[in-house]
Design a protein that fits this description.
OB fold (Dihydrolipoamide Acetyltransferase, E2P); binds S-adenosylmethionine; flat; 10 helices; alpha/beta; six-stranded mixed sheet; 29% strand; Rossmann fold
């Protein structure tokens, strides 16, 4: 029988929607909003902490609860902090700057515990949270719009497609913030009316910029962009029209290198990289330490440009598998140049996961899937026709605690044991959380 969906009591909502109500916030929920109760209804109030007494106004409905806007904090709860960013409240990038460091850390670990508990996994193996400091983010995707040459450039506003004209951002490396104003001037000169995005990555050669916009470039456009690459001292500049999949190279003044395990790689324009070098090192160090006892080949699945393959190759030969051609080409070129024992394979691991037979030669496996997780791949890892063959150590890296817990459940049911799970806060002040789980069988 289907479980009846509990709807907020309509009468309660009507009654309170036009007036201010007082609420006691009981906890911060899994999505980062404070949770209170009103006449038997759950009420979600953004920008509040446990213990706050607030004045709020009911605004709508979410799932089987109500949503309310914070009007005033009447009595602050413990764990409240003053937000450090002038855009806080409007910008969708950070939603939790009103939590102090301790409250933030305990909330993030709590969210991971909650997802593990929902999958029937205890949190005995949960390691303390590793926090990556703000101001270190090396990669950002900015949205931009130009109206009559007036450019708005920044992040999307909270729950909206509107763009916040970013003046400051305590999360970003200051070198990224310094590019915002020159980029605004450039886009205003290039595009009178239009919109798009701009991905900037800080590399050893300088900023690597990929602009996406509808405009078809003419000679003037290309010259304007090339001049910008000079004045902003970029490593590379590419322009891409949406839907074409082709990034036109405009300038390549220096190689846009990043280093993984000491080996230089030049990622393709706009490639996925871990958001900060600090976060990437924390994850890679954990993965390498956990797999250090491995004697034999390692499979690195969802390998990207090789952020784990390259540090891992000092332990043994690595087979890197990835769905996108361009990042894997970058990794392949770097490995060949350095003479490293890394083989590469393009493969869609959702449709064609490595089977138990494919996995038989490997002693250890690393998985770092996108937010959707690695359902098909963990199902294969959980099957093991011959107990003498296949990996007996696994490191699972994830940016989504919900799919991580789901996938861990499948592995545990398939005979794997969870040895440790380490939350890594690469996304300070947001509800996102990275984690590395180590398993053995
Ligand atoms: C979270 S990123 C991790 C990349 C890399 N490990 C790193 O740390 O930079 C996930 C990677 O999985 C790849 N990917 C996404 N879906 C995939 C699929 N179905 N099959 C194979 N790779 C996929 C993406 O292209 C991306 O490189």
């Amino acid at each position: 029988m289907r479980k009846p969906v509990r709807r907020p009591r309509a009468a309660a909502k009507r009654q309170v929607s036009s007036r201010l109500i007082e609420l006691e916030i009981e906890q911060v929920g899994a999505q980062g909003d404070g949770v209170a109760r009103l006449d038997g209804n759950v009420v979600f109030v953004p920008f509040t902490v446990a213990g706050d007494r607030v004045l709020a106004r009911i605004e709508g409905q979410r799932g089987d609860g109500l949503t309310a806007a914070l009007v005033e904090v009447q009595r602050p709860g413990p764990g409240r902090a003053d937000p450090v960013c002038p855009h806080f409240g409007r910008c969708g990038g950070c939603t939790l700057q009103h939590l102090d460091q301790a409250a933030h850390a305990s909330w993030k670990s709590g969210v991971l515990s909650l997802h593990l508990a929902r999958a029937g996994i205890g949190d005995e193996m949960l390691a303390p949270l590793v926090s990556v400091p703000p101001g270190t983010r090396r990669r950002a995707v900015f949205a931009w719009t130009s109206r009559r040459g007036e450019v708005t450039l920044g992040f999307n506003a909270r729950a909206s497609h509107a763009v916040i004209n970013l003046e400051a951002c305590p999360l970003l490396d200051p070198a990224l913030v310094a590019l915002l104003e020159p980029l605004r001037v450039l886009l205003g000169a290039m595009v009178r009316d239009g919109s798009g995005d701009a991905t900037v990555t800080l590399t050893e050669g300088g900023p690597d910029l990929l602009i996406e916009g509808e405009a078809r470039l003419d000679l003037f456009g290309r010259e304007t962009l090339a001049r910008f690459a000079e004045t902003a001292d970029l490593a590379r500049l590419h322009w891409r029209r949406p839907g074409t999949g082709f990034a036109e190279p405009i300038a390549r003044r220096r190689p846009a290198l990043v280093r993984f395990g000491g080996v230089a790689v030049e990622p393709p324009p706009g490639a996925f990289l871990q958001p900060s070098p600090e976060g990437e090192r924390a994850i890679a160090d954990r993965v390498v330490a956990a797999l250090a006892e491995t004697s034999g080949p390692i499979a690195d699945l969802y390998a990207g440009c090789g952020s784990f393959s390259l540090p891992l190759v000092r332990l043994g030969a690595v087979h890197a598998v990835e769905g996108e051609v361009a990042p894997l080409d970058s990794l392949g070129a770097a490995a060949r140049a350095a003479g490293l024992a890394i083989t590469t394979e393009i493969r869609d691991l959702a449709r064609r996961p490595l089977t138990a037979v494919d996995l038989a030669p490997y002693r250890a496996v690393v998985l770092d899937p996108p937010r959707a997780g690695a359902a098909a791949q963990v199902a294969e890892l959980a099957r093991r026709p011959d107990a003498r063959k296949g990996p007996d150590l696994a490191a699972m890296v994830s940016c989504n605690p919900a799919t991580l817990a789901r996938d861990l459940r499948v592995l545990i049911d398939g005979g794997w044991t969870l040895i440790q799970i380490m939350p890594i806060d690469q996304f300070p002040w947001s509800a996102h959380l990275e984690a590395v789980a180590i398993l053995r069988r």
